């Protein structure tokens, strides 16, 4: 039996029950694919259910505010995905009358939709024979065919895509694409895969050569940058605080946070002498305490944030700029924030 048919047979016997596998609706497939980018299924499933319940159609999502979308997305990370999701919904609803493009080529024109997502939607919804290539697929192909070209190199991306096209099942493109992804997730796992019961073990080059744990090959990641975030948690008579919206093209664009001092100097004396603090407090009396001595380390893909929270008790409202706003403490939970701050808010603003 050929490679693709073996995978499809395995898939039909072993696939997990998922809500997005019960539909060919491109809106739902698109939602699931965007949510599951860089996200495990177990983590992404509740978000998929929340989005489909809150926004049953692309028109509902298009009508929402960006803040509503970001709030519902909170905790998934990579927030540019949520902003692109919203922009694409607006485009599809307003410019395409709510109808998603029905070809791989036209799907690629949507913001936030790359090769993998376009291939998934085109094959699952429209039966177009275009292969998906994600982390699971790289792993299956590199092991089965014994390929040691780095998967995150230009040569590797091209080589694996060409192989995926060659292997594509043109009769059952939807089942094949879902099969190879599911196979990588459940059978050909990153660590300690079940090679003894693998239906492909008779032809697997990595198994023959004892290289299963060595493949796929990936070039080393860039150096991790350390950043030091010191948040000012104003408590204005215990009833109000200050929040601000992040702008620019850095991390967390569009999300809210507390006034921030980014500095490696994290003692109280350095904080209260900082320009940001002085400009806000001015001559008003204040009391500053450190919430917890040990910093919270929040790890992003290319940077680690060492975060401390300084509680600033004041009686008068500090001087704020146009990006900042006074927020009632009981309303802090309603703002879309990074998960780092969401966890702090849950513990501090009870």
Task: Report on this structure.
The chain has 15 helices and eight strands. α2 (26-36) packs across α3, α8 packs across α11 and α9 (135-145) crosses α11 (173-186). Strands 1, 4, 5, 6 and 7 form a five-stranded mixed beta sheet that branches. Strands 3-2-8 form a three-stranded antiparallel beta sheet, with no helix packed on it. The longest helix has 16 residues, at 80-95. The relative contact order is 0.11. The chain has 350 residues and is α+β, with helices and mostly antiparallel strands. The model has no long low-confidence stretch (mean pLDDT 96).
Count every beta strand, where a strand is a DSSP E run of 2 or more residues.
8
Number of helices: 15
The low-confidence runs, each spanning 5 or more residues with pLDDT under 50, are none
Report the principal-axis shape.
elongated
Q: What is the SS-derived class?
A: alpha+beta
Radius of gyration: 24 Å
Features of this protein?
350 residues; alpha+beta; five-stranded mixed beta sheet; three-stranded antiparallel beta sheet; 43% helix; 14% strand
Quick overview:
The protein is 43% helix and 14% strand.
Give the secondary structure arrangement, pairings included.
Layout: H1 3-14, H2 26-36, H3 41-54, H4 58-63, H5 66-73, H6 80-95, H7 104-107, H8 115-126, H9 135-145, H10 154-167, H11 173-186, H12 205-209, E1 225-236, E2 240-245, E3 256-257, E4 260-262, H13 268-272, H14 275-281, E5 286-290, E6 296-299, E7 303-314, E8 324-328, H15 339-348
Parallel strand pairs: 1-7
Antiparallel strand pairs: 1-4, 2-3, 2-8, 5-7, 6-7
């Amino acid at each position: 039996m050929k490679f693709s048919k073996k995978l499809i047979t395995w898939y039909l016997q072993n696939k997990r029950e998922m809500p997005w596998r019960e539909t060919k609706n491109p809106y739902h497939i698109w939602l699931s694919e965007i949510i599951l980018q860089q996200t495990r299924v177990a983590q992404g499933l509740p978000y998929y259910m929340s989005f489909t319940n809150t926004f049953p159609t692309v028109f509902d999502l298009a009508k929402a505010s960006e803040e509503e979308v970001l709030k519902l997305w909170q905790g998934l990370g990579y927030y540019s995905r949520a902003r692109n999701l919203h922009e694409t919904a607006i485009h599809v609803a307003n410019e395409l009358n709510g109808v998603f493009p029905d070809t791989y080529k036209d799907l690629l024109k949507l913001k936030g939709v790359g090769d993998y997502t376009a291939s998934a939607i085109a094959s699952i919804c429209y039966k177009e024979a275009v292969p998906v290539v994600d982390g699971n697929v790289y792993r299956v192909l590199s092991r089965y065919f014994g390929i040691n070209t780095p998967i995150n190199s230009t040569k590797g991306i091209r080589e694996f895509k060409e192989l995926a096209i060659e292997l594509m099942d043109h009769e059952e493109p939807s089942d094949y694409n879902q099969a190879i992804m599911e196979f990588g997730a459940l059978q050909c796992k990153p660590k300690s895969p079940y090679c003894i019961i693998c239906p492909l073990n008779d032809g697997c080059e990595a198994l023959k050569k004892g290289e299963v744990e060595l493949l796929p090959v990936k070039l080393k990641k860039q150096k991790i940058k350390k950043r030091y975030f010191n948040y000012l948690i104003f408590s204005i008579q215990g009833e109000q605080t200050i929040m601000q919206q992040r702008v620019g093209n850095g991390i967390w664009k569009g999300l809210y946070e507390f006034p921030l001092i980014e500095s490696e100097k994290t003692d109280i004396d350095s904080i209260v002498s900082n320009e940001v603090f002085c400009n806000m407090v001015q001559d008003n009396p204040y009391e500053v305490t450190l919430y917890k001595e040990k910093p919270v380390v929040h790890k992003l893909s290319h940077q680690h944030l060492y975060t401390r929270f300084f509680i600033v008790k004041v009686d008068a409202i500090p001087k704020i700029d146009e990006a900042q706003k006074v927020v009632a403490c009981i309303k802090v939970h309603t703002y879309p924030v990074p998960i780092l701050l969401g966890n702090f808010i849950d513990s501090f603003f009870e």
